[in-house]
Amino acid sequence: MSGKSLLSAHGLDRIYHVGEIEVQALRGVDLDLHPGEFLVMLGPSGSGKSTLLNILGGLDRASHGSIQFENQELTKLNDDELTRYRREHVGFVFQFYNLVPGLTAEENVELVTDIAKTPMKASEALQLVGLLERKDHFPAQLSGGEQQRAAIARAIAKKPTILLCDEPTGALDYATGHMVLDAIARINRELGTTTAVITHNAVIAQMADRVVQLSAGKIVSSKRNKKKKSASQIQW
């Protein structure tokens, strides 16, 4: 993991207006992501962690502040340029898998490889998450953990610079959650993909290089793990 920042956010605010009510989801957030880093962002519901992840990934815009990605100022991009940033550099994994029901696992992954510049083969992505033998199965024929691993394969098949995961084990039981976390850690380790996982489950933080804690839209702590653990070593 390099000390140089891959993505650097400064002074991020996000304000939503619901009728006449103003809701401030982020309050002056500063955050750096480093090449090859495995970052876990912890916080309860409403702490702003999903809002922050969406802004870093170009799915949402900050109300104030700046985000520098490599030599690009994301906050100055228009909608088409932001779409290009997401397409070329960011992979997303969400709590709910968002697979297309009428397509096999392999075909779901190929949806991404068809639009990426230099993708890996769908079969290679499925192999990385331990799902190659299930490539011809439809989502309804896959378990929850298998569907999430298919979603991870789809996210990484375009070889993203950054992998952003929003509660990736939130809908899974203990055993399948371990398998999904192991797949994410393997992507980070073997491909060197900068990875950020947001969760309310503090146990997952044991896998991280660094742990950031959010509360009420602010980062209240940022600590490096002296000894990170593998998915198989953590106990929920």
Label the overall shape. Answer: globular
Number of domains: 1
Q: In percent, how much strand structure appears in the residues?
A: 25-35%
Largest sheet: 6 strands, mixed
Mean pLDDT across residues? 91
Structural class: alpha/beta
Strand order of the largest sheet: 6-7-8-3-9-10
Note the gap between the termini: 27 Å
Alpha plus pi helix count = 6
What is the CATH class designation?
Answer: Alpha Beta
Look at the structure and name the CATH superfamily.
Answer: P-loop containing nucleotide triphosphate hydrolases
- The name of the CATH topology is Rossmann fold
List SSEs in N-to-C order. Answer: EEEHEEHEHHHEHEEE
Oligomeric form: single chain
Total beta-strand segments: 10
Radius of gyration: 17 Å
Helix content: 25-40%
Query: Which segments are poorly predicted (pLDDT under 50) over 5 or more consecutive residues?
Result: none
List the keywords.
236 residues; six-stranded mixed sheet; single chain; Rossmann fold; four-stranded antiparallel sheet; alpha/beta
What does this structure look like?
The chain has six helices and ten strands. It is α/β, with parallel strands linked by helices and 236 residues long. The chain has a single domain, classed as P-loop containing nucleotide triphosphate hydrolases (Rossmann fold, 3-Layer(aba) Sandwich).
